[in-house]
Specification:
heterotrimer; A mainly alpha (292); B alpha/beta (418); C alpha+beta (367); B: 418 residues; alpha/beta; D-Maltodextrin-Binding Protein, domain 2; four-stranded mixed sheet; 15 helices; 15 strands; C: 367 residues; alpha+beta; MetI-like fold; 3 domains; 13 helices; 60% helix; 10% strand; globular; Extracellular solute-binding protein (chain B); transport (chain B); maltose binding (chain B); SBP (chain B)
Chain lengths: 292, 418, 367
């Protein structure tokens, strides 16, 4: 009997906690619900429960509007390209560097590690203005109208949104710490058998590092997909603009809340899917990062 | 050596890659205008297949940013549409090149014949050089209802005898007494972008103020905070205090719905209002604050950028747009005000007996252009802020003094824009 | 720093004939170092260099060396004495004293002294009977800096306390606790732009959910126009930011809590210690390390406030939400004064650096 009495408040407590959690994400749920209403309904149903009233919803009309009347698909493509390339190249560049640093007796290795640690402190925001200045002076080769041509500025391009943020001291350290826990015996055996470093890296090391790869990949994904500051500065042409600045622009010029919410839903859904599918790695990655 | 060879090869590719078309950027505007312009381009391209023009239309809100972006990306088109007051800034920044310098200069892109017939609204000049030409203008006017003035027994003002500000204040009071209109007067107080400078400079000018000294373009003291400017600011606050104008009003289409008595806005509304209330619509010259009724002048012009590889060919297209026939054609299709007298004579609306002749004449005679200085974009932004502060109830003299200080500092920070 | 550098040697290959592999390994290392050099080190150096000139993003003139002019402009402050006296007509008036000269208007004083060119009023203060006015060369920058500090002071307590409460509530695992944790973490992965868009609707004066909820709980409530009221706009942004970011701090604190040995609590329970005293004497000391880390990293993060301002308020109303970073971008990019903007960025970096060093020091001494 006594036990039961104590159990009851505990359940109430947990249910209350769960309700708080739902309440907490209400704004995000609201985005999705409101995207199926027109503007008048959104304002009319602004009450606490009535905001979930979808009886007079307009179906996918808002989505259709956004896709047909704004360059949404264009922005989406840009974001997908930027994010995919950033994730793949970013994972590669940082893991390779970490591996090379860990396993090879480089001259000045201590110095490099200390420098990397120091660079960890430098916030991206502090260097973004000079970065804009620098990328307007860099050359690039572009394929245009059937031939290659030299371009004299990185401004308004997709690569300017990818390359500057690829190498990341924090990711290098994540890999570095993880690789430390992989015993080097296998790799040395393979070396003696005559395997190349490439082969060892890709067939032995990387398969063992899946959790950290996943963590870095998700973090890169989130950063690239949600990127705002850099693209706002260096990508203001429509053909290279990604989703978030596009959304800001749509938001500041449109008064159609339904369509704005549809836009927001479409940009948020992929993130939520990736997050709920891979959250374990993300959380682990963050914890390792914090322990650092 | 190898690097040099590579560069040369790449440069060869580069020249090959340049398509034969001449690129043009302009703002994306309404369908009539876009269609008319496309027709002009099509006709031109038929006659000039060797240097075809291709249009890229960029939304209005992002146009200025796109131009800056294009400059940073070294990717500006040959022909660039530019809002006339920004011509000086672009010229100073080295983005665009002069179309005509003077008779002696041997590299003039255009000859004087190409623009002799164009009035001052259609020519963008900086440091005595012609940088831009524009085929159309818009005009500011007061829109109201004939029936309203008849009921109140108020005289209909003319260009020669516009309403004085005292007359106008009395009229607003009468309308308020009458109580038939929810809103009495609207001058788009919270208009963004160029509106405050475009819409309110003529009033300020009429009251005896200005933005800056128009000879050296270094000083704002005594201009933007002059007695006249302060009078105008106080008048604006009086309008708000008496409830003649609203600080914010969310309702759209107030004038058509009969909620608003008098609307101070641009000629782009003529069409909509005519459709809504037909013959009852009255288009009147703006209020005289002491020195006459003025409107803003200068709209979108065309210029040639500095990185254009075929400026001669590109300027041919501008010359073509600026012939009387094409000016008339464009404005017939778009409904704007032509920038040449002959073109006006070819248009039903703007000829001697035309319904909107008055608008053409105002735009030809009673115009105050925004100061042609590279500091203009900054001046415009600072002035908008000052208007906003005044509208929010801040002290008029303090707001204008602050604007003067900010403008002069900006000029100093940029080495006087020399 | 937990990374023990000398010990790392044991992770290196001992195998001797790796000379040719070393080239490959070099190739693996070079891209990251090169990119870090070009896009992190060079910009740092460039920003210092540029800040000593009057470079513009697009300009017909080449840059000129101006020394520390930009720094002087940003930080220039002066204090001017104000005398209050009675006019003959009986009304009170102010008089400004500078270099033994008296002026009836502050603006005249500034305009008549070349060294005060460009200064304007930042604020006034009175100590006993004497008044002073502080004038600044760049009032908006000083305001932006103060706004940023205010934001930090608002967001850090809200976010950390909320995170602590959540972490304590979710400390014990139970069925479904994982999902609840995920819920609290969801806003973190949602784009800040999306968050701003939803909140701008929720914060709407008339139709917004927040005002409606408050009004239903408290009928006398006079609806606040959150984002358009200079007194509330920064707080609204702080509340929103805390909501968005609290998940991260919660996770970190949870990890910290789980590291406190359970035996301590058991022992305390046996001694009859109350819940509260357990919290005070076991939880808080045990979390000390984690809390310092959380507070300082949240501070550093909050200093970078930009997106919310750019999307929601553009620094307004009446400059009440202009922040250091927003100001830097506004000046350095949108008004093209890149040299001046870079100077702001350097000062921002100095603040971050200081905070980071404090963090290192506090955490280092603990051990």
């Amino acid at each position: 009997m006594r036990n039961k009495q104590r159990m009851l408040p505990r359940y109430i407590y947990r249910v209350a906690l769960a309700l708080t959690g739902v309440l907490f994400v209400l704004p995000i749920i609201f985005v999705f619900v409101a995207s199926f209403k027109n503007e008048n309904q959104i304002f009319a149903d602004a009450g606490f429960l009535s905001m979930f009233d979808l009886t007079e919803g307009v179906g996918f009309q808002n989505y259709q509007k956004v896709i047909e009347h704004t360059p949404f698909l264009n922005y989406l493509t840009n974001s997908i390209v930027i994010t995919l390339v950033s994730v793949v190249l970013g994972t590669l560049v940082n893991s390779m560097a970490a591996y090379s640093l860990l396993r090879f007796p480089w001259v000045g290795k201590q110095g490099i590690l200390v420098l990397l640690l120091a660079l960890l402190i430098v916030p991206f925001e502090a260097v973004v203005l000079p970065l804009v200045f620098i990328v307007t002076q860099l050359p690039w080769i572009e394929y245009q109208n059937g031939s290659w041509s030299l371009v004299y500025s990185w401004f308004n391009s997709l690569h300017v949104q990818i390359i500057p943020e690829l190498a990341n001291p924090f990711f290098i350290f994540l890999f570095y710490q993880y690789f430390k826990n992989i015993p080097k015996d296998y790799e040395e055996a393979a070396l003696i058998d005559g395997a190349s470093i490439w082969k060892i890296f890709f067939t032995i090391v990387m398969p063992m590092a899946k959790p950290v790869i996943a963590a870095v990949a998700i973090l890169t994904f989130l950063r690239s997909w949600n990127a705002y500051l850099l693209p706002v500065l260096v990508a203001n042409a429509q053909d290279v603009r990604p989703l978030m600045p596009g959304m800001q622009q749509f938001f500041s010029h449109s008064v159609d809340w339904g369509a704005v919410m549809a836009y927001a839903s479409m940009t948020t859904l992929p993130v939520l899917i990736v997050f709920f599918a891979l959250h374990k790695y993300l959380v682990d990655g963050l914890k390792t990062g914090v322990k650092r | 050596m190898l690097r040099k060879v590579c560069l040369v090869v790449l440069l060869l590719f580069c020249t090959q890659a340049r398509s034969e078309t001449i690129q043009l950027w302009r703002t994306l505007s309404d369908d009539d205008e876009m269609r008319t312009f496309a027709q002009q381009v099509k006709r031109y391209n038929r006659v000039h297949p060797e240097a075809k023009v291709s249009i890229e239309a960029i939304p209005h809100g992002t146009y200025a940013d796109s131009v800056i972006g294009g400059a940073l990306a070294r990717d500006l088109p040959c022909i660039l549409a530019v809002d006339q007051p920004n011509v000086a800034n672009y010229a100073w920044a080295g983005l665009i090149q002069p179309l005509y310098v003077d008779e002696e200069y041997s590299h003039n892109l255009l000859s004087q014949d190409d623009f002799e017939h164009v009035n001052s609204n259609g020519i963008g000049i900086y440091q005595n050089k012609v940088y831009s030409l524009g085929p159309f203008d818009i005009a500011l006017a007061l829109f109201t209802r004939r029936s309203l003035l008849q009921e109140l027994n108020v005289r209909i003002p003319t260009l020669e005898h516009p309403w004085s500000v005292e007359e106008f204040n009395v009229l607003l009071d009468q309308i308020q007494q009458q109580g038939l209109y929810k809103y009495i007067f609207d001058l788009n107080l919270l208009g963004v972008g160029e509106w405050p400078a475009y819409g309110f400079l003529p009033m300020l000018y009429s009251a005896g103020g200005d933005f800056v000294d128009r000879v050296e373009y270094q000083i704002a003291e005594g201009y933007l905070n002059s007695e006249g400017a302060v009078t105008w600011g106080l008048w604006l606050q009086k309008m708000l205090r008496e409830g003649f104008i609203q600080y914010t009003s969310l309702e759209h289409g107030q004038f058509e719905k009969g909620l608003l008595a008098i609307h101070y806005t641009g000629s782009w509304m003529v069409d909509r209002y005519q459709k809504a209330i037909g013959d009852d619509l009255l288009i009147l010259p703006p209020v005289d604050f002491g020195n006459g009724a003025y409107i803003g002048g200068g709209s979108w012009h065309y210029t040639i950028t500095r990185n254009c590889t075929k400026p001669k060919q590109a300027s041919k297209f501008i010359a073509y747009l600026m012939t009387n026939e094409e000016i008339a054609f464009f404005n017939r299709g778009s409904g704007f005000i032509p920038t040449s007298a002959e073109a006006a004579n070819q248009l039903e609306l703007y000829r001697e007996s035309g319904a909107l002749r008055k608008l053409y004449l105002t735009s030809e005679r009673n115009v105050v252009l925004r100061p042609a200085t590279p500091a203009y974009p900054a001046i415009s932004a600072i002035f908008s802020q000052a208007v906003r502060r005044i509208a929010q109830g801040a002290s008029v003299t303090e707001s204008l003094d602050r604007a003067v200080d900010e403008i002069e500092l900006n000029i100093l920070d940029n080495r006087g824009y020399q | 720093m937990p990374i023990k550098l000398p010990k790392d040697a044991e992770h290196q290959f001992n195998y001797n004939s790796i000379q040719q592999d070393k080239l490959t390994a070099g190739l693996m290392l070079v891209p990251a170092l090169f990119l870090l050099f070009v896009f992190l080190c060079i910009p740092l150096v460039v920003s210092v260099g540029v800040s000593l000139t009057d470079e513009r993003l697009i300009s017909p003139n080449s840059a000129r060396f101006v020394g520390l002019e930009n720094y002087k402009k940003l930080l220039g402050l002066q204090i001017i004495e104000v005398n209050r006296f009675n006019r003959e007509s009986g009304s009170e008036a102010d008089e400004f004293v500078y270099k033994d000269k008296r002026y009836s208007k502050l603006r005249n004083l500034v305009r008549n002294n070349a060294e005060l060119l460009g200064y304007s009023e930042l604020s006034r203060f009175t100590v006993w009977d004497k008044s002073w006015v502080i004038v600044a060369r760049d009032v908006l920058f000083i305001r932006s800096f103060l706004n940023t500090c205010k934001f930090v002071l608002m967001v850090v307590p809200i976010q950390v306390l909320l995170a602590l409460a959540l972490a304590l509530a979710l400390r014990r695992n139970f069925i479904g606790s994982g999902i609840i944790k995920l819920l609290f973490f969801t806003p973190v992965v949602t784009s800040m732009v999306v968050v701003c868009v939803v909140w701008s609707l929720m914060l709407h004066q008339q139709e917004g959910l927040i005002n409606q909820v408050i009004a239903s709980l408290w009928p006398l409530y006079d609806a606040i126009d959150w984002l358009n009221d200079p007194a509330w706009s920064l707080f609204a942004i702080a509340a929103m930011s805390a909501w968005q970011g609290v998940g991260v701090q919660m996770l970190i604190l949870l990890a910290g809590l789980q590291a406190i040995p359970n035996s301590l609590y058991e022992a305390a329970s046996l001694d009859g210690a109350s819940r509260w005293s357990q919290f005070l004497h076991i939880t808080l000391p045990g979390l000390r390390h984690t809390l310092i880390f959380v507070v300082l990293s949240t501070t550093i993060f909050a200093f970078a406030l930009f997106v919310q301002v750019d999307v929601l308020t553009q620094g307004g109303p009446q400059d009440s939400t202009s922040t250091v970073l927003f100001y830097a971008i506004e000046k350095g990019f949108r008004q093209q004064q890149i040299a001046y903007g870079s100077t702001v960025c350097i000062l921002y970096f100095v603040v971050i650096l200081t905070l980071s060093l404090i963090q290192k020091k506090l955490l280092g001494y603990e051990k």
